[in-house]
Structures are given as C-alpha cells and as structure tokens.
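re: ur question from yesterday

yeah so i grabbed the chain u mentioned. its 52 aa long if i counted rite. heres the sequnce exactly as i have it in my notes:
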Amino acid sequence: MQTNLPDDSVNSIRYRIDFQSEDFQWQMKWAGQQFICQPGRGNQYWSKELCY
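ran it thru and got these structure tokens back, copy pasting raw so excuse formatting
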C-alpha cells in the first residue's frame, strides 16, 4: 500500500488479491489495484474507479 502520494489526483493505492475456498481448494477471484482519491478528485474510500 502506498499512502499520501505526491499526486494531485491520487492519495493512496493498494494492490489486492482476493481468494475464495471452493471444494477444499483456494481459487483466485480478483486481482488488481484500488485507489483513494484526493478530496474533490473522486472516491474517498477504496475503489477500482480511477481518480480524476
């Protein structure tokens, strides 16, 4: 996770991988990055939506 980035749009970025147990095996369900935007530049909570 990276926080307090010196960027006018993006405040924080995290990289995430979600797994789910199916039939006694772990299956990857999602992998990607999520963002928290600077105030007034988009989402203020973790989202895959890009900041503007």
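noticed a couple things. The mean pLDDT is 97. also The beta strands are 10-22, 25-37.
anyway ttyl
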